[in-house]
Amino acid sequence: MDRRLAISLPALFGSLAAAGSASAQGSATTDGTPAQFMPKRPADAAAQVNDIEKFPKCPYCGMSRRQFHHARMLVQYSDHLADGTCSLHCGAISLSLNIDREPVAIWVGDNAAADEVKPLVDVGKASFLVGSKLAGVMTGNSKVAYGDPAAANAARAANGGEVVKFEQALLAAYTDMAQDVSRIRKNREERRRRAMEQKS
Ligand SMILES: [Zn+2]
Question: For the chain, which residues make up each domain, given as ranges?
Answer without folding.
Answer: 3-18+38-199
